[in-house]
Design brief:
The complex is a heterodimer of chains A (about 280) and B (about 325). By secondary structure, chain A is an all-alpha fold. Chain A has twelve helices and no strands. Chain A is elongated. Chain B is about 80% helix and about 0% strand.
Amino acid sequence: MSIAADDGPGMVARAFRHRSFAIGAVLTGLVIAAALVSLFWTPYSAIELAVPRKLRPPSAEHPFGTDHFGRDILSMIMVGARNSIVVGVVAVAIGCSIGTALGLLAAARRGWVEELVMRFSDFTFAFPAILSAIMITALLGPGTINSILAIGIFNVPVFARLARGAASTIWARDFILAARAAGKGQARITVEHVLPNILSIVIVQATIAFALAILAEAGLSYLGLGTQPPLPSWGRMLNDAQTFMYDAPYLAVFPGLAIAVAVLGLNLLGDGLRDLIDPRLARKR
Amino acid sequence: MAFFLLRRFGTLIGTLLAASLVVFLVLEVLPGDPAQVMLGVDAEPSTVEALRRKLGLDRPPVERYLAWIAGLATGDLGISYTYSVPVSELIAERLVLTIPLALIAMAMTVAIALGLGLYAASHHGKPGDWGVMAFGQLGIAIPNFWFAILLILYFSVHLGWFSAGGFPGWSAGILPALQSLLLPAISLAIVQAAILARVTRSAVLEVLREDFVRTARAKGLSRRQALWRHVLRNALIPVVTIMGLQFANLLTGTIIIENVFYLPGVGRLVFQAISQRDLIVVKDVVVLIAALVVVVNFLVDVLYAVIDPRLRTQR
């Protein structure tokens, strides 16, 4: 610990001096805060209908206005943040854990196992999230689980390739040779030496994948394949907004802004993390 | 080169077969009885039985799969259950919208991205570079369908320059048809261009640092000459990779964008087929889009080998 302290300012201080990371952290924090607060408080109910106050433009009472059912847009966006975060986190967790495990396996075993994992990755790339979602909808009907599965499946090959590439370079290093000479098996070397060394790259990718998952979830719920009413979701809100484009154009603005803020925040956070973890990359860009 | 192509072609066929098998399993075997799914749970058993016989679902799955694959290879995709016309006809009349839309969007993407990427790289660290980078970050963060809605809000609702959606058909004349594809193509292109511009910028910057560029400059070439003669070709490899992936993104992006603009393309077809539970159409369109994605990736790999001869001997 004392060695790290002598290096100058701590990791946290250094992180917040990094512009991308700081802006990304603030934007992401905003979205997470909105989701957390919505668990116990929203200005109005995001679900109950209040038709008498429908389609009100933004005002002090309803900062983002109300929709065609009189629901407060700000409250819906707060609850929608929760939905986006849950779908994103679970989908990325699925893709990241299965994908990284496959990539580690491929790098450790080489030969036909590696070939099989890579061919499987190539093949999964043929099914972008939206195609998987269409098939899953045809099978199980639309819903939140649908988007989680579709986005999760889409992420498996992404992480498998990343982990295999990174793990292969680690396997070529001298300290792995030393570990093998010490009699450690493939599984133990993978867990004790390879995984810790590729973890930072995986975390950076997970941040970016989280941003992409939020975009994909919005697209799926825009099409009606994702989260179903009455639960608010940002994509669904934009779909509703399109119906009332002539009467209430403001409806199309705020849910889109929410998506953009969340995705921008996570992307900047990911870029910042990458630079902080590997300063050599930062100088190259 | 011949061996590389042959090997890559073998992988292509294998991937296509695997993809068709997955689509078949998910849409025809896993649902149990597709006829029941298509008609709903309240359907009369006799109606379900009739449809099952009509679609040939009483045959064993292996036989059905082989018949389907043979049909795919010969262009006979079966009869749509809701439209009662051959699926191949349905898809063909929708493709004349989707393919031009994707191509126009791709052309816009490449033009914008190469322009901005080269500009940013040759103005590295200056305000223009920062502007391109900011555009890149924003473009990636904005969902294309939201951008599409904003375009409709401004150009159709506010200014009234374009209709808010729909397609007059190519028979109404090239110009009106192109006009109705303009906003959809822009909304597809901007996001992809933002990503590609960043890739182009960093690829060009990377190559600019190489020794051979310094040699070219020392030989007396101007910065611009070196850029066009030596840097661009070498920077193209990562750019082409991303372009291949992006064409796949554009194809699936059309599914959403066609729905935003109510364009009768393949994306809208598959979406309508889901809500009508027309599994025949869903199955054929999904496998078609997956096949297009796989074939585009194959072409990208072949293109690499053309751009970079070193890759031909590897693997």
